Amino acid sequence: MSRFVVFDVETPNRLNNRMSAIGIAVIEDGVIVNEYYTLIDPEQPFDYFNTRLTGISEETVFGAPAFPELWAEIVPLMSSGLLVAHNAAFDMNVLKNCLRDYQINWKPYVRYTCTVQLGRRLHPV
Q1: Which run of H or of E encompasses 38?
Q2: Model pTM score
Q3: What is residue 93's predicted lDDT score, i.e. its pLDDT?
């Protein structure tokens, strides 16, 4: 497969069921062909830990759209290739939880790979 959709999400709190930001890079034949980044109003309070970790706070996302408003922009990118994330179990779980909580239907199965797992296999400690 020569098209990869690399993405990363940030969360506002330990519940990990909402996003406060998402970044996406679409890579085709080794070239970045599209980039997307947006802040997201998680419609939930922020934990101090998450704000310190990400630099994103309630003030930062003030006026940003909620996840359902952005999904129409995000879904074509996320559906356009193999999903790739660093610690993909976390990012995929947050995505799944957002879709579930906002009652958004997507694919029943999504192919993805994890760069943490790839790194561990290629360079075991």
Answers
A1: strand 31-39
A2: 0.95
A3: 98
